[in-house]
Amino acid sequence: MYVLGITAPVSWNSAAALVNDGRLVAAAEEERFLRVKHAPRIPPLKAIAYCLSAAGIRLRQVDCLAVGFDGPVPYFAKMAGEEARVGHFIQILESAGATAEYLIQWEKLQRGLRRLDPEAGPRRTAFVSHHVAHAASAWRASGFPEASVVTLDGNGEDDSGLLGVGRGTRLRRLRKIRLHDSLGVVYSHVTDALGFVHHSEEGKTMGLAAYGRPIHDFQGWVSFNHDTHRVAPSFERRFQRTFGAPRRPGEPLTDRHRDWAASVQRLVERAGTVLVEATVRNTGVPDVCLAGGVALNCDMNMVIQALPSVRRLYVQPASHDAGTALGAALEVAAQAGAAGPFVMDHAYWGPEYSSDEIETVLKESKVSYERCDDIADTAAGCLARGQILGWFQGRMEWGPRALGNRSIVAHPGLPEMKDRVNAEVKHRELWRPFAPSLLEEAAGEYLAQYRDPCPFMLVAYRVKPSKAGELAAATHVDGTVRPQSVSSRTNPLYHRLISRFAQRTGIPAVLNTSFNDRGEPLVMSPRDALRTFWVTGLDALAIGPFLVRKPSARGAS
Question: How many whole angstroms separate alpha carbon 144 and alpha carbon 94?
Answer without folding.
Answer: 39
